[in-house]
Amino acid sequence: MIEIEGVTKIYGEGKSAFHALDDVSVTIRENEFFTLLGPSGCGKTTLLRTIAGFVDPTRGAIRLAGKSLLESPPHKRPVNTVFQSYALFPHMTVAQNIAFGLEMQGKPRVEVKETVARMLELVRMTPMADRQTGQISGGQQQRVALARALAPRPEVLLLDEPLSALDFKLRKDMQLELKRLQAETGITFIFVTHDQEEALTMSDRIAVMNAGRIRQIGSPREIYDQPAERFVADFIGDTNFVEIELLETEGETAGIRLPSGRETRARSGAEARPGKATLAVRPEHARLVPPEEALMAGTLAEIVYFGTDTHYHVALDSGARFVIRQQNAPHHRQTHATGDRVGVSFAPGVGQVLRD
Amino acid sequence: MADDLSPARAARERRSRLLLLTPAMIILLLAASGPLLIVLIYSFLTPGDYGGVVWKFSWDAWFSVVAERDFFTDELSFADAHLSIFWRSVKLSLMTTVAALIFGFPTAYFIATRPKRSRDFWMLLIMIPFWTNLLIRTFAIMELIRAEGTVNMLLLWTGIIDEPIQMLFTEFSIMLGMVYVYLPLMILPIYASMERLDFSLVEAAYDLYATRWRVLRRVIFPLVRPGVIAGSILVFIPCLGAYVTPRVLGGGKNLMLGNLIELQFGQGRNWPLGAALSLSLLAIVMVALIFYVRAVGRDGEKAHG
């Protein structure tokens, strides 16, 4: 278990001071696949480097299994990193790269040899053991970097955007590979990415970061279905934002009035207060209906065909735009045309009232 | 494209390529191959009474590089004077190279790890002495370490010593001078390879339980090795033939090869011997260069083969 408590990193002083990390607190469980997700410059890599020991936080504490890590230099922390550029040693073979950490730990020669062989098998690189790192492909380098970091059996593995240099197909394969490795080794993975899809498909839990702060922590489903604030809803997936009036709250739901005057219920945080608010509705959670059954009515402005689904852009009477995504069925016939009067509807409890 | 060229145009291209090569060839011929040939021929001739050479074939010059014949008894023995000068040249050059490496490596590392903007400033500081006249720099060292020089005065004044230390006109002073003069030649190539070094490799090694010392030995040093070898060669070779520094700082007692050669062409009036000694120096340099090529070649094979 890794406890990160009030970690703050300030670069510079006075007016030019820059908060790379601003009071970050999170507890990462054992054997968890935990993802730090955010746009570039949000502080996710800085947080990773703080755990690895390459950055000293200005304030705060980091504990691993109850013991503070901050006093130890990187080479004394039971934490290994997979670097974005892989950082494989170019003057060593694949096997020598994987053996490096074990040798530095002073493991006996026989054990080093056994572990390297096991690691090569784990990442399916056994035939490449004696190649130079410059002679293997990007995906293979990636696997060697993983094996090298896993070989000393760290308690935590840090991965700094390890898939960003790979092409789409290889990326998909490596995502599955990473999940498999984590399951087989039982090591806690802390994974940094700016790719929301990658985060959603791989993680047990995600922390969404922006401007040095953690904005929301939750399972992929929680983050996607119940974004706490506009930044999270906007950063992950596509979202419709509707200006609404919050009437009253009851537990985790709230009564709301839409711009059309119609009232319905939506999910909300417990701290939501009556007044003006923003509602987030995912495009695939809404339906296109005849105007008389609709929560909000408008004209169909655009139809975009995507193969698996079709996007309907509705110009609402309130002036805002609303996108609906509907899956395409076989033999489906297009019944709508641009310019039609249409209505937008979604089930009660589907929308999420956002924190300011 | 190439096979579109008409024969006339191909010939013109070939001619212009030759034309471009000509100046370099002329310089090489006039300034390197020609003189070298003359030196080689002279080393097999007989010395003239007042310098110069007499056109009579003789092995004597090469013979006296390593041996001498007793004037009275005609007995053969090793030319101790020459051999000790050879030995001193190689020894001082090696020591200078090692000292320059010890000072130059951390300096290059320091500069390469500065922010990009300030690196040029540090390199300028390294280069400025290099642009100053060699003689002036050598006399500056002399001024520092002579008996009434700055260093001795300072030591006397602070009471660390009671009487001046003899530093000038020793092997130490020659080495000090040569380290000072050739240090930039060590720093430059090491810095060049250090600047290309991917420092995430250093982080990776540090992350994988390597101590600072092991990071240096297992990762940084092997990767900047070509720079270290190039720097060592660039320092070692001019040291072997150094003339001004041992002349000024060695005070005539501590001759090096350069001074010995000059002596044969001047007071010694033995041009063939001077020529033979020069070629012996060249041979040592060649051995050092072959060593270098093989060391670097091995790196190249590792990286590509």
Automatic annotation (TrEMBL), chain A:
Keywords: ATP-binding, Cell membrane, Membrane, Nucleotide-binding, Translocase, Transport. Residues 2-236 form the ABC transporter domain. Part of the ABC transporter complex PotABCD involved in spermidine/putrescine import. Responsible for energy coupling to the transport system. SMART domains: AAA (SM00382). Belongs to the ABC transporter superfamily. Spermidine/putrescine importer (TC 3.A.1.11.1) family. This is Spermidine/putrescine import ATP-binding protein PotA. It is an enzyme of class 7 (translocase). It comes from the Bacteria. InterPro entries: AAA+_ATPase, ABC_SmlMolc_Importer, ABC_transporter-like_ATP-bd, ABC_transporter-like_CS, Mo/tungstate-bd_C_term_dom, P-loop_NTPase, PotA-like, PotA_ATP-bd. GO terms for molecular function: ABC-type putrescine transporter activity; ATP binding; ATP hydrolysis activity. GO terms for cellular component: ATP-binding cassette (ABC) transporter complex. It comes from Pseudooceanicola pacificus. The complex is composed of two ATP-binding proteins (PotA), two transmembrane proteins (PotB and PotC) and a solute-binding protein (PotD). Its EC number is 7.6.2.11. It catalyses: ATP + H2O + polyamine-[polyamine-binding protein]Side 1 = ADP + phosphate + polyamineSide 2 + [polyamine-binding protein]Side 1.
From TrEMBL, chain B:
The chain crosses the membrane at residues 18-45, 92-112, 124-145, 165-191, 223-244, 273-293. This is ABC transporter permease subunit. GO terms for cellular component: plasma membrane. The lineage of its organism: Bacteria, Pseudomonadati, Pseudomonadota, Alphaproteobacteria, Rhodobacterales. Keywords: Cell membrane, Membrane, Transmembrane, Transmembrane helix, Transport. It is found in: Cell membrane. Its main location: membrane. It comes from Pseudooceanicola pacificus. Gene3D superfamilies: MetI-like. Residues 86-292 form the ABC transmembrane type-1 domain.
